[in-house]
Amino acid sequence: MPAVEVQNLRKEFVRSNGRRSGLLRRNRKRVEALKGVSFEIARGECVAILGQNGSGKSTLVRLLATLLLHDGGSATIFGHDVFRETRAVRRLVNRVSVEASFFKKMSSTENLSYAARFYGMTPGETRDEIPRILEKVGFPADRRGEAMEGLSRGMQQKVALARALLTQPVLLLLDEPTTGLDPRSKLEVQDFIREVRQIHDATILLCTHDLDEAEALAERIGILDDGDLICLDTVDGIKRKYHSGTLEEAFFAATGHGLEDVKEDE
Amino acid sequence: MPGAAAALRHELIGLAGVFERNVYLVKRYIWWDVAFFVWTVANTLTIVFIAKGIEAGGGTIDVPRVTTILLVGAVVWAYLGIIFEILTETVAWERWEGTIEYTFMAPLSRPIHLFGMGAFAIVYGVVRAVLLFGVVAVFFSLQLSHANFPAALLVLIVASIPFIGIGMMTAVLPLISPEKGTQLGFIAQGILLVVSGVYYPVSVLPEWMQWISVISPATYALDGMRDAIINGAGITAMWEHIWPLIIIGIVSIPLGLEVFRRGERYAKKHGKLKRSG
After folding, report:
1. How much is the ipTM here?
2. Contacts with B102 from chain A: Cβ below 8 Å
3. How far lies B242's CA from each of A180, B16, B235, B248, in Å?
4. CATH code for the domain in which residue A244 is found
5. Domain that holds residue A181
6. Is B105 close to A65, i.e. CB distance below 8 A?
7. What is the tens place of the pLDDT at every residue in B65-94?
8. Quick one: which of A71, A64, A66, A54 has its CA closest to A224?
């Protein structure tokens, strides 16, 4: 059984273009965020999805995280239907996104306690586990009681990783986890992701627009462009397919544009 | 551990987690809470002094009685406001902080999540209501020698059940309209304020408004609390006020959960859980 099986997954949003037809009616248009995406991820595998902003990466992660309802197709996680068996899926999945997202006045320990309770962890269990996991991600012990708003982005992202790992997910959804981090923090987070795979045998779906990060962490890389998954293969396979010497050239050959070109927001 | 017991344990731990988080937030924002309490005291005093004002203007009223009637009205109104505010924070605050997606993707049932918020709202609201009553009462010479406070408290707590049901319905509004949803919740509060006899008897309302007051839990909460505090009615005498509250609660809680469920589905369909969207 694959860890993740996605078949012809579709999602569209209705967006207002800001204009009105008549006094009250807004002009709306349908935007296809995912246009029938299909792929599988094996247990323990790390797959990176590359795409520019607005390509559908975050929509894919949100669909798999049960945060969006789909408009067609199917998705299963370890055999559980993402849209029908949400409780079972939620026990298996956690996510780290580009925004660390915490209660800013609360400390890292308080934020992690709150998150852990939702996964059934008692105060007795988190009393030892939270300091252990914070230490593991390299978070200084003397700052555990400090409000999150006083911490750097890198520190906050480490706590976000700790939050995801605290619940021992078998599938980790990483949505640009290192975007905006300084080079050192970026490397620390990447090292930690590798360690998580080795120790916890977690399956990872990494969405990023960082080519080096994708190449360094993933066994296979998918290119998502304007809601279409153009290819999903090993780095060498992609280079061969697009007759390119580098992943960046292959991406350009596949999509006709660079990764940093900005599109409409997802 | 058998499956059902393990699932129940998981849900109860989650419920405790919601409560625990709110305690952390109260601790972290304690001075804001103190400031808000001072504002509530000032508001309540403004209303309760009306009784003295009428007398000073030449009116003939039983000032201590009217003062107590107004005080009970203001305290229940403040309590209702806290219940609604905390339940609305289920979505609004988490959305503002950006944590809502993490909370909504956690394996905790939404009813338990909302009941956790409701349980905290009751405890926090009761503490605030008792403090408010005590502080404002110091400013007036009230006749409270016959007051039956346990009976009044019982009515307030039972009234919390339908209040929470209505609060669940308004809590979903920020999911539907992230920008204006919270303010829309004030409409429900405003309607309850008008029809429930917070500061005047329901009998002065037009007949069609009196019909609405019948389904407002605040009507029975106010009647019961005034009966207990002014007339000294005991706990057994509270039954006539409590049974309508129970019936409204039996209807409003499932209705509130269903409204929230539909709102959550709408938000997931249209991508409105996301902080920026």
Report:
1. 0.89
2. 95, 101, 115, 163
3. 56, 27, 10, 10
4. 3.40.50.300
5. 4-96+171-255
6. yes
7. 899 999 999 999 999 989 988 988 888 888
8. A54
